[in-house]
Structures are given as structure tokens and as C-alpha cells.
TrEMBL record:
One of its GO terms (molecular function) is beta-glucosidase activity. Gene3D superfamilies: Glycosidases. GO terms for cellular component: cytosol. This is Amygdalase. The active site is at E364 (nucleophile). Pfam families: Glyco_hydro_1.
Length: 474
């Protein structure tokens, strides 16, 4: 059995604190932006937590993590990506001293992972800015956020050095372009936010991210610190050069984030965009030097590809992750309208490798679907999610192709390895996991865990280091 995956390939799964932990006001935790987004990005935020916000309880991972980590270990996980809820550590975000009970929870969680030989991969800020920082400072628009983030990461690095080897600074940092409140904690309504304010906020995040790399290397020399971007390859809709140029511009708007993280300076192509939109980034003394602290690896999410056209008449919008684009006539879509393109993952891996020559880590990929819990012939409750197996198999085959192409891939963590509350729509119905959690959109359910068919499939994939994947010779 041959396999292109290296022996030390990091197989695992990924989650975010705000989508599964629950316990939103337990042990001193403060409110985050998620606690006022009961329906994700689909409706306006509320004044405070409301009963219809499924994330307040999530899947009760805060109290059940031992049971869940044991299931991850049974699948053979080498790595588990989760995030730290910033407002568990600094409930308001601008305090001087951290909340010990919050730190202790993550100490216990990481110890549980290590008990099974699972390496934690930790996202420092995953769409969970403390609500106080959003309301009081307007989130990352305010430069003071760099100071608060620096204090936060310094506490994390000192506390968890030796326990956490892999760190990500911000989740899908480029998503701030589309969702400034969820991604950047920016309280100003999107329609009122100027491009100047938005790109200044992005600059503050990029400086903070580079500062985290600098501090991480000083405090934990053995650790690896990466960035995390939302990848969405953009194809020209036709070979018309107008479409090719439109696709180039769309890709550049996204590429700036990884470019700065990997190279340590702003790329020249963005100057034209800044000039056209009267954007003048204010650099403070030392910013340019801090940005030179580049990441050790590039991590990214991959769900869909999109098309772009220079012809306004042909702009038929498809639904994407957070970035909508023009639909590709050659691709099928998921129940939620996300177009399925396994080869796009190979294209993305090759592009990033050619561009940066830094190790790559696929930290989100998966299929959201409305699963049906059934009872099998042995009386066990399960889900026959062959559609998910097909999706993941086809994407992982393309990861293998990219490795054969010469791309250095560190690992793969499928998104929502256990069912959790969706980020974009804040519903339970849209499930990604190998493990079914009995909780429904109306909040009902036992919270019991059941292994889906894909649980056993993924266990075999990991156990064979990818040799069990079925290629269709694309």
C-alpha cells in the first residue's frame, strides 16, 4: 500500500471555541461578539445574549471535552485544532490580569489531548473578540487592540509553552473584508465603515499577528506559529482576457494577507487599489520592522472555488463561505449552495507553495449537510453520510496529488470533526462532523454523541496514512 502522505503527516479535526464550548457565562467568562449573533451573519446583532442563540450552550464541550477527545483519539487524531475563547482569559479584553479559571480549562483540555498523544493546534483569535472591546473601542479599527492582543498572547505563550507546539494568530484573517463585526470585532455597521477604516483595522491586525510571531519565537523557541487565511481560488469565467484580469484582481484582494504574513511587507500591487480608493495606511514607528517577523507556515480553510468576470451582465452570484462569487457552470453545489471543487484544493496548495515556499497546513475543509440519524441493523444510532465520505475522499486525493507535485503539506484537519453550531448561519442543522450530536435548531436534544459512518472511514484513512483513499484518476 503506497501513499504520498509523509510519515509525520498531522491528521486530525478542527473546531472553534465559540461553536461548541457553550458555558458562555461560566467560570468568569465574559461576552464575545458571538453572544450577540444568534443567527450568525444572517440577521442583525442583538443587544445581549438571547435564548435563540444556540452558541450559548453549543454542544456543551466545556463539560464533555473528555468524552469528545476520547472519540477523537479513537479515530487516531494526531492533531486537534481548537481556539481559545479570548473572553475566557480576559472577560472584557482590556484587563491587566487574566482569569485563572479560563486558563485552567485550557490547561485541562490540552492535558487530555496529550494523554492520547494528540497535539493541540491553537487558534488565538477565532471570531470571538470580547464584546467589550468591540463596543468600547470599535474592535480592530482602534490601535489600542494591538496592546490588548499582545497582553493576551503573552499570557497564553507563557502559560502553555511546552503544551502547545502549533499556533495560529487569527482565523481567516481576510474574512474581515466581508464580515467586519464577526471577524474584526468592528462595531461600526458595515454600511457605515469606510475603506480607510477597514484597511487601517487590517493593518492593526497584521501588526498584532507579526508581534505574536515575534513573541512566540522568543517565549517558545520550539513552537511553530502560522497565519490562517480563507482560501478561495478564483477562476476566470471564460478565456476572455477581461475575465482573466478580473480574476487576477479578485485573487490579489485576498492574497495581500498571506503575502504580508509570509514576506513581511506590503506587496506593491495593493498600492494601486489604495490609491484608487483614497486609502492611506497610517504606519506608526516600528510597524514596518514588526511586520518582518514572518510566519513559520501558512494555514488555510478550503471549501469552494469561485469564478470572476469582467462582464457585469454575466455576474450570477453563487453562495460561498463568506465571499460570494460568480457560479462555475462546471461544478455541483452542496445543500447550502457551496460549489464543490476538489481539484481547486490542489490548485491552491500549488499556488501557495510556489508563492511562499513555506510549509502549508489545511486546517479547515468539510461538507455541511443535513444529516439523518438512523438506527442500524445492530441497534446502534448512526448516520449513513456517504456524501461526506465522498467529499472528503475526493479532496484528500487532491492533497495527495499536490504532495506528489512537490508541495510540502504539514497536515489536514477536517472542519467540525464533531457536529457544532454553524458560524455563518448559527444553526445545528448544517452538520460537518464524524460524530453526530443530538441537538436541534430549536435547542432540543439530549446532546448524546453517535459515531457516523464517516467516523469509521476517517479512522481507516488515518490508520493507513491515506493509503485507503480511492482515486478516480482526475
Amino acid at each position: 500500500m503506497t501513499t504520498p502522505f509523509p510519515k509525520d503527516f498531522l491528521w486530525g479535526g478542527a473546531v472553534a471555541a465559540n461553536q461548541l464550548e457553550g458555558a458562555y457565562n461560566t467560570d468568569g467568562k465574559g461576552l464575545s461578539v458571538q453572544d450577540v449573533m444568534p443567527h450568525g451573519i444572517t440577521t442583525p446583532r442583538t443587544e445581549g445574549p438571547t435564548e435563540d442563540n444556540l452558541k450559548l450552550i453549543g454542544i456543551d464541550f466545556y463539560n464533555r471535552y473528555k468524552e469528545d477527545v476520547k472519540l477523537f483519539a479513537e479515530m487516531g487524531f494526531k492533531v486537534f485544532r481548537t481556539s481559545i475563547a479570548w473572553s475566557r482569559i480576559f472577560p472584557k479584553g482590556d484587563e491587566m490580569e487574566p482569569n485563572e479559571k479560563g486558563l485552567q480549562f485550557y490547561d485541562d483540555l490540552f492535558d487530555e489531548c496529550h494523554k492520547y498523544g494528540i497535539e493541540p493546534l491553537v487558534t488565538i483569535s477565532h471570531y470571538e473578540t470580547p464584546l467589550h472591546l468591540s463596543k468600547t473601542y470599535d474592535g480592530w479599527v482602534n490601535r489600542k487592540m494591538i496592546e490588548f492582543y499582545e497582553r493576551y498572547v503573552t499570557v497564553l505563550f507563557n502559560r502553555f509553552k511546552g503544551k502547545v507546539k502549533y499556533w495560529l494568530t487569527f482565523n481567516e484573517i481576510n474574512s474581515i473584508l466581508e464580515e467586519p463585526f464577526m471577524s474584526g470585532g468592528i462595531f461600526t455597521p458595515k454600511a457605515e465603515l469606510s475603506k480607510q477604516e477597514l484597511y487601517q483595522a487590517i493593518h492593526h491586525e497584521l501588526v498584532a499577528s507579526a508581534l505574536a510571531v515575534k513573541l512566540g519565537h522568543e517565549i517558545m523557541p520550539e513552537a511553530k506559529i502560522g497565519c490562517m487565511v480563507l482560501s478561495m481560488p478564483t477562476y476566470p469565467l471564460t478565456p476572455n482576457p477581461d475575465d482573466v484580469v478580473a480574476a487576477m484582481h479578485a485573487e490579489q484582494r485576498n492574497d495581500i494577507f498571506a503575502d504580508i504574513h509570509a514576506r513581511g511587507y506590503y506587496p506593491k500591487y495593493i498600492n494601486r487599489y489604495f490609491k484608487a480608493n483614497n486609502i492611506n495606511i497610517k504606519f506608526e514607528d516600528g510597524d514596518a520592522e514588526i511586520l518582518k517577523h514572518t510566519v513559520d507556515f501558512i494555514s488555510f480553510s478550503y471549501y469552494v472555488s469561485i469564478c470572476e468576470t469582467g462582464d457585469p451582465q454575466k455576474r450570477v452570484e453563487g453562495k460561498g463561505n463568506l465571499f460570494a462569487g460568480v457560479q462555475n457552470p462546471y461544478l455541483k453545489a452542496s445543500e447550502w449552495g457551496w460549489q464543490i471543487d476538489p481539484q481547486g484544493l490542489r490548485v491552491t496548495l500549488n499556488k501557495y507553495w510556489d508563492r511562499y515556499q513555506k510549509p502549508l497546513f489545511i486546517v479547515e475543509n468539510g461538507l455541511g449537510a443535513a444529516d439523518e440519524l438512523i438506527t442500524d441493523e445492530n441497534g446502534n444510532k448512526t448516520v449513513n453520510d456517504d456524501y461526506r465520505i465522498q467529499y472528503l475522499n475526493d479532496h484528500l486525493v487532491q492533497v495527495g496529488e499536490a504532495i506528489e507535485d512537490g508541495v510540502e503539506v504539514m497536515g489536514y484537519t477536517s472542519w467540525g470533526c464533531i457536529d457544532l453550531v454553524s458560524a455563518s448561519t448559527a444553526e445545528m442543522k448544517k452538520r460537518y462532523g464524524f460524530i453526530y450530536v443530538d441537538r436541534n435548531n430549536d435547542g432540543s436534544g439530549t446532546l448524546n454523541r453517535y459515531k457516523k459512518k464517516s467516523f469509521h472511514w476517517y479512522k481507516e484513512v488515518i490508520g493507513s496514512n491515506g493509503a485507503s483513499l480511492k482515486s478516480d484518476n482526475h
